[in-house]
Amino acid sequence: MNQPVDKALSSITQVPYWINGAKVNGTTTRSGEVTNPATGAVTKQVAFANAKDIDTAVQAAKAAFPAWRATPPLRRARVMQKFLTLMQENVNELARLASEEHGKTLPDAVGSVTRGIEVIEFACGIPHLQKGEHSENVGTDVDCHTLRQPLGVCAGITPFNFPAMVPLWMFPVAIATGNTFVLKPSEKVPSCSMKMAELFKQAGLPDGVFNIVHGDKEAVDGLLNHPDVKAISFVGSTPIAQYIYETCAKNGKRVQALGGAKNHAIIMPDADLDFAADALVGAGYGSAGERCMAISVVVAVGGIGDALVAKVKDKASKIEVGPGDKKGVEMGPLVTRAHRDKVKGYIDQGEKEGAKLVMDGRGKVVPGYENGFYLGTTLFDHVKPNMTIYKDEIFGPVLSVLRVDTLEDAIKLVNDCPYANGTACFTASGGAARKFETEIEVGMVGINVPIPVPMAFFSFGGWKQSLFGDYSVHGMDGVRFYTRPKVVTTRWTTTDVGGPKLNMPTLG
User: Fold this and answer.
1) Residues 422-443 pLDDT 10s
2) Residue 81's pLDDT band (boundaries 50, 70, 90)?
């Protein structure tokens, strides 16, 4: 809930901005609440930046850019290496902050922070990754070479579900390549970003190179419309991704905007059903389904539907739901009460539209945590493509099972979906796997791998309405996004060229 800052709430931690290497309170008169999803208690107040606050952060980044751009890539890499070490030493603290504000279990949070740290490892290789090309004597006494140069001030807008990992997809590569950065993390989970800023400063990053502002649409629009911001990276829902893409295009900015997902897992008749069911339960209910790469749709091919649903139900019913910091808990709460209620509404709608509700998580109560934002594991069978629970991204612990006759039917189903983030196929057949990976129109594909998130030295991004822009995040796509190529043609000679020539020059 947005509200004016209340002095009566002064005992609650106030989350500031991070601008020019220090914590800053800003000029805003608005703030939002940060809650602990496990208990429902308000734990922090976070400032919502206005246009003046955004400009302060951008100007700090702009002022820091010339010196940071001129810093040799090797020296930038050394700062990254120190940051890497500090991040590795603080994995558990970052995981604790993520669990407190998002609700995910501590082991899941540790895993997500670790995957983010892998991007820093990749960015440490920037002296090699940012190298250009050179060709000697492309024409008589003429050489040609390319440079990859930074853009200037870049900005990132990140979602609530991975408070450390998704920002780490962006700012290490942007900063390693010589840019400065303004991050607007989700206002629901601000603390991981603030901790990472402190560690980056400790690693020797110059003031102003990395800045953080918090807020809602006003802060987002301030970044999208600021003339000194050269590029925007975003991860979130498809409608907002499209809005950001269109706004940035109008303003002449580079943009990579990752949108929503409806990830399908195809289970072939020859698949190992126990293995597949384990994978589906982990991919569907891990992090309470609040992952852009979560499996939310299971496509049972041939006659395996009954056996597969029975195995998934058996395994899912044994998942321990509770607070993320409690030992033995496998699935935590959803991020907010409003989001929990929205997911409940989808379950209501699925019942109304005729899907078979095999497992109903709406009545889940965790003793001692009655005010937490919990849902139990939910499983629908005999879902049809025209149902709301199939068409919409639910972003919760809800699995939908559809049944088709053939692999061709399954591929068509996936390719007809407007989302194309990730997908998987479980099979023992190399031929089926090859057909699937060749014909499927999705950006990230797993074969017997339920969540095919690439390593940091590859790029992460979907197709169709799951990605707006030409570049995915991290990997070489990240290096290309945060730099622009310059081609230089040189001649160092006193040879007489025979006077001015008005025809199109050729260098052969």
Assistant:
1) 999 999 999 999 999 999 999 9
2) very high
- Greatest alpha-carbon pair distance for the chain in Å reads 91
Q: Can you count the helices (H) and strands (E) in the chain? A: 16, 24
Give residue 495's pLDDT: 64
> What CATH superfamily classification does 263-447 receive?
Aldehyde Dehydrogenase; Chain A, domain 2 (3.40.309.10)
Residues 6 or more apart whose Cβ sits within 8 Å of residue 421: 258, 260, 261, 262, 263, 292, 293, 442, 443, 444, 462, 466, 467
Q: What is the CATH number of domain 2-259+466-487?
A: 3.40.605.10
Q: Are 398 and 380 in contact (CB under 8 A)?
A: yes
In the chain, where are the structural domains located? 2-259+466-487, 263-447
Share of the chain above pLDDT 90, in %: 92
Q: Is 417 a catalytic residue?
A: no
Separation between Cα atoms, residue 79 and residue 309, nearest integer Å: 50
Report the Cα–Cα distance between both ends of the chain, in Å, rounded: 67
What's the CA angle centered on 361, arms 192 and 269, to 5 degrees?
A: 95
Catalytic residue among 124, 154, 192, 292: 292
Q: At 351, which helix (H) or strand (E)?
A: helix 337-352
The CA-based angle 153-167-332, given to 5 degrees, is: 160
